């Protein structure tokens, strides 16, 4: 059937089947980018915070480069984490006001799940540290468990949504957790920062690319 | 549909509305201002086209009050999602295959 048989004129524009197909593709990509950007931005932002924190600690270590005092690293990390936390809540609330439904609720549950997971890890690790573990062992415990928890969260989310990229990045994060313990102190911080930061930022960027 | 293009969808603005709404997962709804901003349409233009889609049962319009402020939510219905799928199928049947 000829293309022009279905030519429709509305809003002063002529819509042919070819232009309709082009419009579906372009508008679909645009809508996905604009409707889903907040979730990806939050994830990527936390990837940046993660990398900055771990590498900041690495650069402050007496057995590492020791570029600045550890107290400076702790202060910078505290400020950056607080800013990221507030930004996540503001963006999350604004996004849930515009789009609402099961997927939004599921995303919010997942976000609180991350917080609960790291809260539990903090209690477990602090509890173990208080039982006389050496400073090096505590450092390795933090690096390993942090990456393993984030790996499990990303991997299970990928499995649940049949997202191969997320699933693959989850496995890489689990491998990073194991590697961080195997390389020992002080390089565990470097592995923690690079694996965690690259994994989270990479996931956000690749998800954005897939959205168009 | 037998290769026929649904005239309710085959119009630039209504097609853009249907594409944006079907991008959301099933059951997800978007506010009127957010859709208006996304599509860069005037309020009157969006309302006119939404009325036609709502009349056909393709779009559901829900008005609620949140803290005494009226909020209008829009979502594509299962009938609308099916009609859009059929429209896309008909479009691909009409268009020559890509070489």
What would you say this structure looks like, in words?
The complex is a heterodimer of chains A (212) and B (99). In chain A, α1 (17-60) packs antiparallel against α6, α3 (102-129) runs antiparallel to α4 (135-160) and α4 runs parallel beside α6 (187-211). Chain A has a two-stranded antiparallel sheet with strand order 1-2. Chain A starts with 7 loop residues before the first strand and ends with a helix. Chain A is elongated and about 75 Å long. Chain A has a domain at 101-211. Chain A has 212 residues and is mainly alpha-helical. Chain A is built from 6 helices and 3 strands, in the order ββααβαααα. Chain B is an alpha+beta fold and 99 residues long. Chain B has a single domain (12-94), classed as Orthogonal Bundle (Arc Repressor Mutant, subunit A), CATH 1.10.10. Chain B has 4 helices and 3 strands, in the order αβααββα. Chain B has a 3-stranded antiparallel sheet with strand order 1-3-2. In chain B, a hairpin with a 2-residue loop joins β2 (59-66) and β3. The longest helix of chain B is centred in the C-terminal third of the chain and has 17 residues, at 78-94. Chain B is elongated. The two termini of chain B are 26 Å apart. The relative contact order of chain B is 0.22. The mean pLDDT of chain B is 92. The interface between A and B is medium-sized, with 28 and 31 residues. β3 (99-100) of chain A pairs antiparallel with β1 (29-31) of chain B.
